Amino acid sequence: MYIxxxxxxxxxxxxxxxxxxxxIMGVVGAPTLRGASSAAAATGTSAVxxxxxxxxxxxxxxxxxxxxxxxxxxxxxxxxxxxxxxxxRSNLRHIIVHNMDHTQNFTMAVNAFTxxxxxxxxxxxxxxxxxxxxxxxxxxxxxxxxxxxxxxxTLDWVTKGGVTAVKNQGQCGSCWSFSATGAMExxxxxxxxxxxxxxxxxxxxxxKKYGNMGCNGxxxxxxxxxxxxxGMCSEEAYPYTSGTGTTGxxxxxxxxxxxxxxxxxxxxxxxxxxxxxxxxxxxxxxxADTAVFQSYxxxxxxxxxxxxxxxxxxxxxxxxxxDGIKYWLVKNSWGADWGxxxxxxxERSDSTSDKGICGIAMEASFPIV
Length: 369
Known about the structure:
Elements: H1 2-12, H2 16-19, H3 22-25, H4 38-43, H5 45-52, H6 57-71, H7 78-100, E1 106-108, H8 118-125, E2 142-144, E3 155-156, H9 175-192, H10 200-206, H11 220-230, E4 261-265, H12 270-277, E5 282-286, H13 291-294, E6 296-301, E7 312-322, E8 325-331, E9 343-347, E10 364-368
Parallel strand pairs: 2-4, 6-9
Antiparallel strand pairs: 1-6, 3-7, 4-10, 5-7, 5-10, 7-8, 8-9
Helix pairs in contact: 5-7, 9-10, 9-11
C-alpha cells in the first residue's frame, strides 16, 4: 500500500525522480537554495523568503524522497503522504532561510523530525521533564556551590571514555532517564575507571514511587534517589523497550552500579556548573520544543529563541570553544542521526547569574558514587 501511494504521488509530481537524480539535488543533511542570488540574501530575510517560495517543486520532491529513504518513512494513506510533504516543505524552507543567514552560529538540516509540525514534535519527543518540587519522594541531593574548576577552556568526557554511545528514547517521554543514566555512567567511570551502560528501562518501569511517571515524564533527581536506594542494573540485563511509548511492569535485575548521594548545582551559575562538569558529566534540563532543536545540525546555539521553559532532560559531557564561542557539549537522546552525531553545542558563559541559552544553567545535578 505504501509503495502504491508513493508512486502515485511521484507521477503527480511530473515524475521528478526520472528527471533529477539525488546527486544533482544536493545533500539532504545541509540543504541550500538553488539559484538564490547573493543580492537577495544581502537584502534581508524577506527577500530570501520570496526566493525560497519560488524554488521548484521538483527539487523539493527529490529532497522529500531522499528523506523517505534515509529515515524509512512510511505513510498509511495518500492524503497523509501529501500532508507530510506539505509539512516537510515548510520546514525545509525554514531550514534554507536559516542557513542563508550568515549571522547565525549554528546550522539546521533535514532530519527524522522534518515531516512533523512544531506541535507534533513537541508532543512526541519533548515534554518529559517534571518540574522540580513535583516529586513524590524528595531526593537527598545537596547543593553544590564550588567554583574550583580547571583553568582550561576545554574538557571532553566523551574522548576521555566516560560517556556511552548516543541512545534513542523514541516516542517515550523518558529523556530524564537517559540524562540520569548518562550522569551515573560518568560518575561510575570517574570512580572505577569502568564505563558501564546502565538501564533506562529500569528507571522508566521501576522508579514511579520516587515521583517519576515512565513515558509521561520524570526528574533526574528522582532517578538518582532511586539509584541510591536500589542500585542500577546494566542496559544489557534490562534493555530499553519503551521507545513506542508503552511501558511494562518493573522487572527484577541484579544491580551492578550503586550511588551514595547526589548534588544540585547552584541555579543560574555557569561558573559553578563548569566546576561540576570538571568532576564528571552533569544532568541538565533545557527547553527543546522549538525549531532551534527540531532542526539543529551543527555549530553553537547562541539564539535565545530556544527559550527557558524547561521540558527536556539531557547531559553535559564537556565544554570547549568553537570559532571563539564558548560552548557546553551536550549529549541528547534522539539517536546519532540528530545534531552532531547525537550531540549539540550550546553557548556557555562565565556568569554567576545567567539562566543560559535554552535554560541550560537552571537545573543541573549529578550523582556521587
